[in-house]
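Exercise 7 asks you to align residues with tokens for two separate proteins.
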Amino acid sequence: MNNLRIIYDNAIDRAVLTASSQAGGLGPANLQRDERSAVLRAEGTGVAIFATWPTPELIACVAPIRSNMNSSARMRVRGYDRAGDSTPVLDTGVMMPCPEAPLGASPIGYLPPGWNGYQWGGVNTWARGGGSDGVAWFEPVSVRQLVIELSSVDNPDGYIELSRLVAGMYWSPEYNASYGASATSVDTSESYRTAAGAAKNNVGTRHRQLSLNLEFLTGADSARLARIVDECGTVRPLLFSLFPENADPVLEQQHMLYGRIANIEAISAPSFGIYSTPLQIEGF
């Protein structure tokens, strides 16, 4: 099993983005904004996104974040040493970015067909926990251009839309998080009763939160994590996956978040050469 991975430097933010199609003003520039309502919306159920850099970027992951893709969606990522090259240095082939639960994971009929860890839906559902995240992990490769092809031919919306795109190199500690990591669904709705005793609700928004303890950090990992916290603070988002490339994709889906560090805690030294700190990530 792979240890947790964190992408804290999103190369997409310094790329020039174009797309094969867009609906009106909902273009690829929105993929560089941290706003749920800012989306790239394709004119149909397929779109190609081109990310180009003037200098080489080291990439080991591509993740379309907060989209309306369902479990049958497909993605292909190709990377080129230079824009315009005909032969890619990276080609993931066609893969499923947010696949369904594997067959045999539950008794037949227990889960509906196509079920995965996400509540599918477009931008109008995202405030209440809708939308799905996709991911492709691969060996690190230096590229100047990425071509990301997305398709969701049976999407009930009739088009693809996504809010954020992440690509970059990840950091992974030598020792994984301790047992007891928790994934929480946070609902900001408020319940109250009227003077007549009727139960009412002020409907709020929903987001997810991950809490874990890194109790066995080496000196090098402690220094690297401290730099990540210094660079991101509680403001700049990062991509966090507790179970990357797990054989059960739903386990990764439930424990992968694009969001911000919710706490800045001290990194302590409980024993010689070993460091520890709690970490909490609040979803986008």
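Second protein for Exercise 7:
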Amino acid sequence: MSEEISRWRYLADEANAGRLYLDRAVAQSCRDACNRQIDLYVTLLEDLKMMARVSGLGRFECSDELANMLGAKAIGGEGDVDSALKEHIEVLTQMRDTIQISVDRIGAQDDSNAQDTSNLLN
């Protein structure tokens, strides 16, 4: 996952430097898709809290161990879903922010071009 974050940080630097441009409509659609996915993952993170405490497996020592193991898979254990979702949110946020730079730059360029055209016509 850190490789993905590094890749998007590099692309963000390129966008900030003006070397990365995306089609405005495509960029807006991608940004909106990132926002929807982030919202979904945030909701799933909230739902995971209910899964961290597993019960109903019986009153045996092994069932308690199994319940603890399953709860740790949700939050806090090795390879838990909580950590994975947080990493995905981090990558998606980096993607969204990088795409937003392009959207903002294109919007500013469009505004500048419109102003230049207006000045020429007046």
